[in-house]
Amino acid sequence: MLQRYSFLAWHWPCKSCMNRIFQLFLLSAVHMPVVAQSSVWTMERCVGYAVEHGIDLRRQRVETEQSHYDVRMARLELLPTIAAETTGQYSWGRNIDPETNTYNTITTFNNYYNVGAVLNLFDGGQAIKALRRARLARAQAETTLQKLADDKAINVMARFVEAVYSRCCVALTSRKLADSQALLAKTRRLFELGEKSRPDVVQMESHVADDDYQLLHQQNVARQALLALKAEMNYPTADSLCLDTTVATALSSASLSSTIAGAERLYSSFESLSPAVRAAQLSVEQSRYDWLICRAQQLPLLKVGAGLSTNYYRNLSQESGSANPFGRQFHNNLGEYVYLSLSIPIFAPGRWRSARRAKTDWMKARLNLVEVQRQLHDDIAKAVMDRDGYCREMRQMERKVVADSLAHYLCCRKYEEGMLSTFDLHTAAQTLQESRIRLLQMQLMLVLKQKLVNYYQGEPLWTSK
């Protein structure tokens, strides 16, 4: 009894030491081969790989390149349109002789050439508005690419945390199985000495079998979590992926005790940086220009044109050589022209409907912007709340793990002395195992929420190479 109280007096001052030992266990007990540092995949490395190789991001990069091309084409729309045309025509039967302007029955060949340019003098500002809209579309494509990259980073971080959590659970379950096997061997020895009964041995064998099953189950869960991470990263399924499990203890005590700005301050500072809000704002501007372009289509269109034209004519019914040569006719028939065209839409219900639809889309885009801003505010508030909550829960769970470790140790001593049943010992072991797993979960979730809060404070989720 004196030894027990001596242990209690020594144990409680060393609570921080036991917490440090438990953290070191998480780093060393995960069963993996010894690999070079370069082959270990950290959270940042996984995020960078996913951003570079993600299918949706690669698709958006193609869209971004197309938006740059669209801007160049919109600039060219401001220049005159130049076209060249040639026509060849055979005529036979009754027709009009272009030389005498009389009907006859002959076979002729006509060859027309035309080169002209057309410039819109007034189109209601459609070309200018189209150029501005193309620039907005380019900016939105770039912003959407950034938004997809941030969303991909958050998803990969969540999958990474799940994979590391499952891997560490395998280590914890393996440790519990080893403890149960050692206790089973001791129980068998005590049974041989007559201090334990046969039911105690059978009960311990049942506990070992249950721990063995739990280990197998956790290994399957870990493999599924790793597969989900590979799928999110677009990483080859057959290739190995060795994860860095030190993320469970990555946060220092200084970072845990640091004060976080309130959700309102974070929102006011991050709103201008948010890709989602920026994309929604650009969508509103694009919808407005779509409406302005549709309105401009209802205005008159004034354009000027100029060009050169010539032709070649030959009467195939006459003897060869009677017609003027091609070069002479081409030069003699060469003419220039200039024209001015004014088109006024008087009754165009299709254009009216398009303008009304464009205005409706503009109003919907503005409502979508309000929704995105509200969603961002809620996400920031939830991230800060979760971060603070997990921080408090983790500290409380650390104390619970220390208490459960002490309780389990005392139960083992009482079991060896025959003062505790096998069932009570198993209950204490399960309580300690659940506390360790919940502490691990709190640590990893705190890492994830801290990353989100840092992101809302302006820190990028990933850095490009």
UniProtKB/TrEMBL annotation:
One of its GO terms (cellular component) is efflux pump complex. GO terms for molecular function: efflux transmembrane transporter activity; porin activity. InterPro entries: OMP_efflux, TolC-like. Pfam families: OEP (PF02321). It is found in: Cell outer membrane. Gene3D superfamilies: Outer membrane efflux proteins (OEP). It comes from the Bacteria. Its main location: membrane. Keywords: Cell outer membrane, Membrane, Transmembrane, Transmembrane beta strand, Transport. Belongs to the outer membrane factor (OMF) (TC 1.B.17) family. This is Outer membrane protein.
